[in-house]
């Protein structure tokens, strides 16, 4: 059964068509890679899926529910989590604080509990920190020990890990990763690929859609690849198939327009 | 040079004023932190808090509830509810619809709303143009400590003000809503992606900040034994200056800024000949000089360019 079904999704910015009738299907437990030149609509797809942008036309169905028209936080609560291309961690907060925000929708204690039922709150906090430590340790055994430090003091790769942990903390069914290797050197990128495989092994039911420019990463982690150009889906299939596709090669390498 | 006792006395008086300024400043800084807006009707919401307090006190007296120990908590609670609700309404009317417009529009809209609140009190409150005596409900008398007269009334004001600040600090640092507020302040889009309800969080922030203004308004009534419909104008400008000195967006900065401004005003009054007439001139001049050299404020995180 498909977890996510996108049909005819169209997003316009004034006269510019950023997404033009895009169809994408994601199955449960599947990792889909999204490639395409800059400005081809990849991040716009994520923004429309998560409710940050309102589509002009088309349908998004997730777990049998229509998402179009829902507010961003409501979509997040249904089980879609994401990371951003440029890190959107709260750099002044600790790693634990950041991950705790990821669990926001799951927390059950309110203002009153902070005053009268402290035990419940303390219990919830303990459980949250334990879960956050567990998630951090998946990627880096030493990271939980730095959980109370400001995220801004962590190296780039660990920040990315905290961000992925924050997205995973809510227990999503679908994880959207927007160019996780951005700004990383080849060693860090290799570590990132290892991290993504850990996520897949630990959470086999989780579906992942990953936007990447690094073809090495796309080839390494995705079972299926979708290619975009000018807001349209131009190819879909295995990495090898998409890489051979003439339109994809043209989009990346340029084309002789004389006889096109 | 005035004697040391006088300076200490003035500094102590400055702390009194500073507590009230700080409470107003925290509102400014919260709104700016979360939505990047300067909510210029906040000063008049502070005034509205004082008038609501006075009305509630009169009502309680008419109903036969005389004791300050019962009347004051009820008054604070009622005023906080009223200004909190007005603050939330103000955000929905003057800020949210203009989210995509130029920040200047928000500034204009909130300034206008302040004017509406002020004029409404002037017109609809019985004899609204006159200064209103505020009942003295706090214990009178006092002690002398090293030449400084400390009135019990002032101790109570200080206690209530500090309690309100501690309460806000706890809400922000220790609750789920507080976590949402901090997250929205830093990364609104990412916070929504985590399931944080943006509208609810903004409502909570405006309720919190405006409720604090009510506390400040009532304390001001208790301190001066008088309130006036125009008090929100200076109150607002001072509160905003205090928040700016501390660094807009930083709650502790706003508290420090408020205290600093209060002490600056009163010590200026003591140090300069005919100083009490010039105290606002001196205090605001210091603010201007300060902002020229450190525009992001004492503890500012966000640079001024973001405004």
Structural account:
The complex is a heterodimer of chains A (260) and B (307). Chain A has helices at residues 42-49, 72-78, 95-102, 111-115, 118-139, 156-169, 186-202, 215-221, 239-244, 246-253; strands at residues 2-13, 16-27, 31-35, 57-62, 65-66, 80-82, 174-178, 207-211, 224-229, 232-237. Chain A contains 10 helices and 10 strands. Chain A has 2 domains: 1-79 and 173-185 and 203-260, Rossmann fold; 83-171, Rossmann fold (3-Layer(aba) Sandwich). In chain A, helix 3 (95-102) runs parallel beside helix 6 and helix 5 (118-139) crosses helix 6 (156-169). In chain A, the strands form 2 sheets. Chain A has a 6-stranded mixed beta sheet, sandwiched between helices. Chain A is of the alpha/beta class and 260 residues long. Chain A is globular, with a radius of gyration of 19 Å. By secondary structure, chain B is mainly alpha-helical. Chain B has one domain: ABC transporter involved in vitamin B12 uptake, BtuC. Chain B is 74% helix and 4% strand. Chain B has 11 helices and 4 strands, in the order ααααβββααααβααα. In chain B, strands 1-4 form a two-stranded antiparallel ribbon. The longest helix of chain B is centred in the N-terminal third of the chain and has 32 residues, at 4-35. The N and C termini of chain B lie far apart (42 Å). Classes of the chains: A alpha/beta (260), B mainly alpha (307). The A-B interface holds A 50-52, 71-73, 76-77, 81-82, 84, 88-93, 97, 100-102, 104-105, 107, 109-111, 114, 166-167, 170 and B 170-171, 174-177, 179-180, 182-183, 186-187, 189-198, 301.
CATH class of chain B: Mainly Alpha
End-to-end Cα distance of chain A, whole Å, is: 40 Å
Strand content of chain A: 15-25%
| Major β-sheet strand ordering of chain A | 6-7-8-3-9-10
Please tell me the overall pLDDT of chain A: 88
User: What distance separates the N and C termini of chain B?
Assistant: 42 Å
Please state the average pLDDT score of chain B.
90
The CATH class assignment of the largest domain in chain A is Alpha Beta
CATH topology of chain B: ABC transporter involved in vitamin B12 uptake, BtuC
CATH level-two architecture of the largest domain in chain A:
3-Layer(aba) Sandwich
| Rg estimate of chain A, integer Å | 19 Å
Which of globular, elongated, flat, extended, rod-shaped describes the shape of chain A? globular
- What letter string, H or E per element, gives the SSE order of chain B? HHHHEEEHHHHEHHH
Number of helices of chain A: 10
The largest sheet of chain B is: 2 strands, antiparallel
Rg of chain B (CA only):
19 Å
């Amino acid at each position: 059964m498909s977890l996510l079904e996108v049909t005819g999704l169209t997003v316009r910015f004034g006269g510019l068509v950023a997404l033009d009738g895009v169809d994408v299907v994601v199955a449960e437990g599947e990792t889909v890679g999204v490639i395409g030149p800059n400005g081809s609509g990849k991040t716009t797809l994520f923004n429309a899926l998560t409710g940050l942008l309102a589509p002009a036309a088309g349908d998004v169905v997730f777990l049998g529910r229509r998402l179009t028209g829902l507010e961003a936080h409501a979509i997040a609560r249904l089980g879609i989590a994401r990371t951003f291309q440029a890190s959107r961690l709260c750099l002044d907060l600790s790693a634990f604080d950041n991950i705790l925000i990821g669990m926001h929708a799951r927390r059950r204690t309110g203002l009153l509990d902070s005053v009268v039922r402290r035990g419940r709150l303390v219990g919830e906090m303990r459980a949250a920190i334990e879960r956050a430590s567990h998630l951090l340790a998946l990627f880096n055994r030493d990271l939980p020990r730095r959980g109370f430090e400001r995220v801004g003091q962590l190296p780039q790769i660990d920040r990315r890990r905290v961000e992925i942990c924050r997205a995973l903390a809510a227990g999503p069914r679908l994880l959207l990763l927007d160019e996780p290797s951005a700004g990383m050197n080849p060693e860090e990128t290799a570590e990132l690929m290892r991290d993504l495989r850990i996520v897949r092994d630990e959470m086999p039911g989780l579906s992942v859609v990953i936007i990447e420019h690094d073809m090495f990463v796309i080839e390494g982690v995705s079972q299926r690849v979708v290619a975009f150009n000018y807001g349209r889906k131009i190819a879909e299939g295995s990495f090898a198939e998409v890489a051979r596709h003439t339109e994809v090669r043209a989009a990346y390498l340029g084309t002789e327009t004389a006889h096109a | 040079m005035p004697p040391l006792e006088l300076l200490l006395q003035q500094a102590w008086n400055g702390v009194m004023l500073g507590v009230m300024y700080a409470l107003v400043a925290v509102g400014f800084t919260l709104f700016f932190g979360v939505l990047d807006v300067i909510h210029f009707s906040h000063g008049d919401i502070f005034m509205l808090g004082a008038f609501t307090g006075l009305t509630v006190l009169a009502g309680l007296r008419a109903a036969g509830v005389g004791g300050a120990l019962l009347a004051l908590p009820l008054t604070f609670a009622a005023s906080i509810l009223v200004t909190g609700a007005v603050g939330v309404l103000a955000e929905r009317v003057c800020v949210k619809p203009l989210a995509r417009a130029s920040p200047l529009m928000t500034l204009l809209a909130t300034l206008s709303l302040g004017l509406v609140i002020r004029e409404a009190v002037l017109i609809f409150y019985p004899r609204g143009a006159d200064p209103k005596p505020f009942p003295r409900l706090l214990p009178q008398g006092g002690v002398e400590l090293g030449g400084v007269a400390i009135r019990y009334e002032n101790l109570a004001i200080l206690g209530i003000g500090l309690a309100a600040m501690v309460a806000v600090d706890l809400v922000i640092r220790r609750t789920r809503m507080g976590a949402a507020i901090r997250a929205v302040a830093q990364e609104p889009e990412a916070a929504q992606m985590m399931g944080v309800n943006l509208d609810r969080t903004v409502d909570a922030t405006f309720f919190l900040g405006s409720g604090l203004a009510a506390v400040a308004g009532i304390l001001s009534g208790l301190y001066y034994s008088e309130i006036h419909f125009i008090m929100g104008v200076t109150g607002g400008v001072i509160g905003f200056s205090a928040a700016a000195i501390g660094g807009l967006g930083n709650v502790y900065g706003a508290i420090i800024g408020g205290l600093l401004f209060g002490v600056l005003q009163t010590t200026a009054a003591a140090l300069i000949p005919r100083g009490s007439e010039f105290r606002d001139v001196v205090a605001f001049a210091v603010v201007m000089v300060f902002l020229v050299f450190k525009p992001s404020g004492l503890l500012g995180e966000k640079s001024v360019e973001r405004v």
